């Protein structure tokens, strides 16, 4: 029997990256001659990946009608964002202790994010977290991305895990829908960036602090 596999989303789940994501977005909009986006409004754009976030932000400002414009602005965003990935981004309180406990229990840890893999790896490298994960799968790793359950299932397979002994940990609709589609229980972290109230998404468990994550995962695996 394979060890249990715990799969984590990245932005809004493992790390609070909102300050750097939105800081870069505000810089970008100003460079494009547009008004900055309201912070809470920008938070709601996170979760589907950087390109969809940039596209939605442009359209909120009356721009982004052509794919060429979206691609050009997206490339400018990436060029700046990769220089400030961890300027303010940090793991959530209690998260590292929970990862330590999972590792001590012999569990397999993996990341399944809609961030492109190169940036996800760079971010986790800079925070000295990459070594904790057997697999770091981004939106471009398998040609599919959450909420497609194949993104999650292929991450579990790459880590050598079994979907029947896996738990997803995320913060938003994309994570919850991917887990539900894969038939995998999902712990939803309430401190993330969901645009939809978590109870409306019906995750298996809603968690307010990572101090309670090991016990929540244990209950789900036992069940």
From TrEMBL:
It catalyses: 2-phosphoglycolate + H2O = glycolate + phosphate. The active site is at residue 9. It holds the Pfam family HAD_2. One of its GO terms (cellular component) is cytosol. One of its GO terms (molecular function) is phosphoglycolate phosphatase activity. Pathway: Organic acid metabolism; glycolate biosynthesis; glycolate from 2-phosphoglycolate: step 1/1. Its EC number is 3.1.3.18. GO terms for biological process: carbohydrate metabolic process; DNA repair; glycolate biosynthetic process. InterPro entries: HAD-like_hydrolase_sf, HAD-like_sf, HAD-SF_hydro_IA, HAD_2, HAD_sf, PGP-like_dom2, PGPase_prok. Mg(2+) binds at residues 9, 11, 171. Its cofactor is Mg(2+). Keywords: Carbohydrate metabolism, Hydrolase, Magnesium, Metal-binding. NCBIfam families: HAD-SF-IA-v1, HAD-SF-IA-v3. Belongs to the HAD-like hydrolase superfamily. CbbY/CbbZ/Gph/YieH family. Specifically catalyzes the dephosphorylation of 2-phosphoglycolate. Is involved in the dissimilation of the intracellular 2-phosphoglycolate formed during the DNA repair of 3'-phosphoglycolate ends, a major class of DNA lesions induced by oxidative stress. This is Phosphoglycolate phosphatase. It comes from Phreatobacter oligotrophus.
């Amino acid at each position: 029997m394979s060890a249990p596999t715990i799969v984590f989303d990245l932005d809004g789940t493992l790390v609070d990256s909102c300050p750097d994501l939105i800081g870069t977005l505000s810089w970008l909009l100003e460079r494009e001659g547009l008004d900055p986006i309201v912070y809470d409004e920008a938070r709601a754009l996170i979760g589907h990946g950087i390109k969809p976030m940039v596209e939605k932000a442009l359209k909120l400002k009356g721009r982004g009608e052509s794919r060429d414009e979206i691609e050009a602005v997206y490339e400018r965003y990436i060029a700046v964002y990769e220089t400030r990935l961890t300027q303010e981004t940090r793991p959530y309180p209690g998260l590292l202790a929970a990862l330590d406990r999972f590792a001590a229990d012999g569990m397999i840890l993996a990341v399944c994010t809609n961030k492109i893999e190169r940036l996800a790896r760079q971010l986790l490298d800079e925070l000295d977290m990459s070594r904790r994960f057997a697999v770091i799968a981004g939106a471009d790793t398998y040609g599919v991305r959450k909420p497609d359950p194949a993104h999650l299932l292929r991450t579990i397979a790459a880590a050598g895990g079994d979907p029947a002994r896996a738990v997803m940990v995320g913060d938003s609709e994309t994570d919850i829908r991917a887990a539900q589609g894969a038939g995998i229980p999902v712990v939803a972290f309430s401190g993330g960036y969901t645009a939809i109230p978590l109870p409306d998404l019906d995750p298996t468990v809603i968690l307010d602090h990572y101090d309670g994550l090991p016990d929540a995962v244990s209950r789900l695996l036992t069940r």
